[in-house]
Design a protein that fits this description.
Elements (H helix, E strand, L loop, with lengths): L5 H61 L12 H24 L4 H12 L35 H6 L6 H7 L5 H13 L4 H16 L1
InterPro entries: LipDrop-assoc
Protein name: Lipid droplet-associated protein
Organism: Nocardia aurantia
C-alpha cells in the first residue's frame, strides 16, 4: 500500500481542519458574546473577592496594633445597655415623686379633727381629708414602660447576629440568600453600623447578585 510522505499527510489534515472550523464558524460567532460576558463577570467576581480578602487581612492587622480592646468602641454599645440606662433614668423621678406625696404636711388631718369637734362628730362627706394613697406608678398599677429597643428582623434572632464576630459572619455568609443578606445589612446600618460588617455584607450581596 502506497503511503504519502509525512508533509503531505499534515497538509491534508490541515485542510480538513480548516474546513471543519469554517463550518463551525456561525455557531461560534453566536456564542462568542455570551462567552465574553461570562468571562468578564467571573473576572469581576474574583477581583471583588480578592479586594475583600485584602480588607479583612488589613482589619486583622489594625486589630493587632490596637491592642487587646481594653477600651470599648462606640459601635460596641448594644441596645440592651441603652435600654437599662433609660430605665434607671425614668424610674428616679417616680420614686422621688412618691416620697414627696408620703411626706406631705399633716395639717389637713388636724383641721378635720377640729371640724369634727365643732359639729359633734357630723362631718360632711365633702370635707377634705388626708391625701389619698397615691396610685402606683401608672394608671393601671403597672410600672412605667421601658423604651423599646430596635425591632430586629427574624434572621437576626435566628443566627444570633448581635453576638457574631467578623470571622463567624464570614463563615455564615455562604448559607444566606440575597433577602437575608439585605435584612442583615439594613439592621447593621440602623444599629451598630460597624464598617467591617457593612463592607462584608455589601460585597457578598454584590457577589450573589452577579451569580
Amino acid at each position: 500500500m502506497f503511503r504519502p510522505p509525512f508533509i503531505a499527510r499534515v497538509a491534508a489534515g490541515a485542510a480538513v481542519y480548516a474546513l471543519e472550523e469554517t463550518r463551525r464558524l456561525p455557531s461560534v460567532a453566536l456564542s462568542l458574546p455570551i462567552t465574553a460576558v461570562s468571562r468578564v463577570l467571573q473576572t469581576t467576581m474574583r477581583a471583588q473577592q480578592f479586594v475583600t480578602t485584602l480588607a479583612l487581612k488589613g482589619d486583622a492587622v489594625f486589630e493587632q496594633f490596637a491592642g487587646n480592646g481594653a477600651e470599648q468602641p462606640e459601635w460596641a454599645t448594644f441596645d440592651e445597655d441603652a435600654a437599662d440606662d433609660g430605665a434607671v433614668t425614668t424610674a428616679e423621678p417616680v420614686r422621688r415623686s412618691r416620697f414627696d406625696l408620703y411626706s406631705a404636711d399633716p395639717e389637713p388631718a388636724s383641721w378635720i379633727d377640729d371640724a369634727a369637734a365643732d359639729t359633734n362628730g357630723d362631718v360632711a362627706d365633702d370635707t377634705p381629708g388626708a391625701p389619698a394613697d397615691p396610685e402606683p406608678h401608672g394608671a393601671n398599677g403597672s410600672a412605667p414602660a421601658e423604651p423599646r429597643a430596635e425591632t430586629a428582623p427574624e434572621v437576626v434572632a435566628r443566627y444570633d447576629y448581635d453576638t457574631m464576630t467578623l470571622a463567624q459572619l464570614r463563615a455564615r455568609l455562604r448559607t444566606l440568600g440575597v433577602e437575608e443578606l439585605t435584612e442583615l445589612l439594613a439592621y447593621e446600618q440602623r444599629t451598630l453600623d460597624r464598617a467591617p460588617f457593612v463592607t462584608m455584607l455589601t460585597n457578598r450581596i454584590a457577589t450573589v447578585t452577579a451569580q
